[in-house]
Amino acid sequence: MTRDWTEEENFGNILFSEDILQIVVQHSNRKLQEMRHKYKKEDRPELKDIDIIEAHVALIACLLLTAIFKSNKEDTALFARDDKGREIFRCIFSQKRFLLLLAALRFDDPNTREEKKKNDPATHISELYDIFISNCQSYYNPVSYMCIDEMLVRCRQIWREAHVSIVSRRHLYEIFNIDAFLNIT
Fold this sequence. Notes:
It is a single chain. By secondary structure, the protein is mainly alpha-helical. The chain folds into two domains: 11-110, no CATH class; 146-185, no CATH class. It has helices at 11-15, 18-36, 52-68, 87-92, 95-104, 110-117, 123-139, and strands at residues 163-164, 173-174.
């Protein structure tokens, strides 16, 4: 169960908190600024900085919709077509803006990445990941009368803190506290 929240409040706003969005906006805008210098006309509408509202309401929503519609492998040219594709995408972004934001999407400071990579191989996402997991743990508290359907996801030891939940099915794991394990050689 989760904590009480008002109807107006979206659970996505709680998990993808403003802290996460602020980090994404800050680093993505830095990349957009670099990209702007490559164009002759720097004041093009698709080159403008992203703000928190556009990052959350438009970009994350658009990415979630591509997952929901299973259209992540569709050509982005469908954004501009009236006869094919999904209208919702054309309502959210132009194709150029969407592709530019995907190219500019950043989660960390590239200037400090190499130094941090020595201690943390996943440094490019670790700050956001830690905030997201903390939000999940803060706002989701299982209670004694909850019912969980038996659905175990095969993960083959890609998580450090996973433990065997059914001995007869050793390839299935219960994940309590997600901690990414990167097998980088």
